[in-house]
Amino acid sequence: MTLFQASEIVKVFPGVRALDGVTLSLEAGSVHALLGENGAGKSTLIKVVTGLYRPDGGRLLLDGREVSFGSPHESASAGIGVVHQERNLIPGFTVGENIMLQKLPTSRGLIDRAAIRSEALRWLAELELDIDPDQPVTELSVAQAQLVEIAKALSVESRVLLLDEPTASITPNEAALLFRVVEKLKDDGRAVLFVSHKLEEVFQICDTVTVLRDGASVLSGGALSELTRDQVVDLMVGRVHEALNLPDRTVDTSVAPILELRGVGTATGHSEVDLTVRPGEIVGLYGLVGAGRSELAKALLGLDRITAGEVLVRGQAVKIRTVRDALRNHKIGYVTENRKEEGVFLEQSVARNIAVTIWDRLRKFLGYVPAKSETEMVKSYVEQLGIRIASPSQHAGTLSGGNQQKVSLAKWLAAQTEILIIDEPTVGIDVRTKDAFHTLIWDLAANGLAILLITSDLPEMITLADRVVVMRDHRIQGELPNTHDYDQMSQQVIRLIHATPSTLGAA
């Protein structure tokens, strides 16, 4: 039975036909994949379905009846839940308040906080999340926030649930929990739309697929059991995608580390962290949600207090107090996992975003930074990274996720960093752009850049890292040389993550 249908949907923005007659049908008791490259129209379609955008053509049907939503609240009230790729939690609220926001329980006209806590715990338990409902969402990691978003969507008890990149910032273990919930929703007769760039997940949990390319449906409702991965990628990009083939690259282990941590502890809770990164080396930092990987990176940049041990850069003990200090005095850059809030200025031009780290070099009399200087400097990085823009004056907020991530990376390259921390580099990025990013990161290391890579994507880690350092509970569990053999490495990494102190020697 078809629960929901978007029929011949058209959405036009000035100069762009974002959706051109797209059709999507969601069946009860089924998980449907929505695939396409960045900019294909997936997020635009979801925003039309949930009332953020009004369609310029076509119809939306729920239970066979035509519907029209003027806001996300209206679509939610009709039984359509959504988890967007961008975070939609309210920073000033607690976890429980965010989860229950659309139907806050009351008692005698007042907010019932005990009921909020009780109901929130119910939905957190569905995802097997050990998070306090009274905790402010500002204290959550990106991955924890993503899981709370999913709990929030489930709390509406939606008959139709739209998941836009739900596993982008979570590890395989957390994804497995989510997939169990999705299976339960499917068994309950609900319709689930699953948007992901991780094709292995799509083939694992989805029944049918719609593929968009350049705003149009090139496949609508195809059975995944009848398709191969190459056929799906061919539909997405218009040709069979070639497997990534990276050139040989070696690390000179006789060279002293450019970055070294000795017994580092932080105010966040890290303890006895030892870590080294050499020039030309990619060191991977892997762990489950809450392991403290991103928090450790931020402590290195002066965003959290280091309480014990020492940090050495080029063999000298340093105390880094700010991001500016890290960049100017130690040539350390940080590509954040949260590109939309921390990585780029969405309302500023591409030129300004890339040039921001070198304004001191470009500044003229009385602090004036000529736009021409910005533009000329930016051109080389746009070409080097393959950033697809209309002009350097284009606002970064109008770019696809992949191009925004390239802009975020370009500003650190422009600053001529020698140590680069890259946090979740390919979250929400399509398969072809992901391969381009992997090649780029590999080439940067080959040219001598020291890279500390944080990723929840284990295949990405095994593809790129020279060594894999595994963290749990803000401590280093162990370190593995990377053989780039996925089966072997994945087993060793997972074993190390779950090893107890008594079995670490055997792991």
Q: Can you walk me through this structure?
A:
The structure is a single chain. Helix 4 crosses helix 5 (142-155) and helix 14 (371-385) packs across helix 15. The protein has helices at residues 42-49, 72-77, 95-99, 113-126, 142-155, 172-187, 199-205, 229-237, 293-300, 323-330, 339-343, 350-355, 359-362, 371-385, 401-414, 431-446, 458-464, 486-497, and strands spanning 2-13, 16-27, 30-35, 57-62, 65-67, 80-83, 106-107, 110-111, 160-164, 191-195, 208-213, 216-223, 259-266, 273-277, 282-287, 306-313, 316-318, 332-335, 419-423, 450-454, 467-472, 475-481. A hairpin with a 2-residue loop joins strand 21 (467-472) and strand 22. Among the domains are: 2-237, 3-Layer(aba) Sandwich (Rossmann fold); 338-416, no CATH class. The protein contains 18 helices and 22 strands. It has 507 residues and is of the alpha/beta class. Keywords: ATP-binding, Cell membrane, Membrane, Nucleotide-binding, Repeat, Translocase, Transport.
Percent strand equals 25-35%
Q: Which parts are unreliable, with pLDDT below 50 for 5 consecutive residues or more?
A: none
Rounded mean pLDDT score: 85
Give the count of helical stretches: 18
Largest sheet report: 6 strands, mixed
Task: Tell me the strand order in the biggest sheet.
Answer: 6-9-10-3-11-12
Q: What is the total tally of β strands?
A: 22
Could you say what the CATH architecture of the domain at 2-237 is? 3-Layer(aba) Sandwich
Helix content: 25-40%
CATH topology of the domain at 2-237: Rossmann fold
**Inertia-based shape:** globular
Rounded to an integer in angstroms, the radius of gyration calculated over CA atoms is 23 Å
Structural class computed from helices and strand pairing: alpha/beta
Distance between the termini: 50 Å
For the record, the CATH class of the domain at 2-237 is: Alpha Beta
- The H-level CATH homologous superfamily of the domain at 2-237, spelled out, is P-loop containing nucleotide triphosphate hydrolases
Keywords: ATP-binding, Cell membrane, Membrane, Nucleotide-binding, Repeat, Translocase, Transport
Subcellular location: Cell membrane
GO cellular component, one term: plasma membrane
Domain ABC transporter: 4-239, 248-498
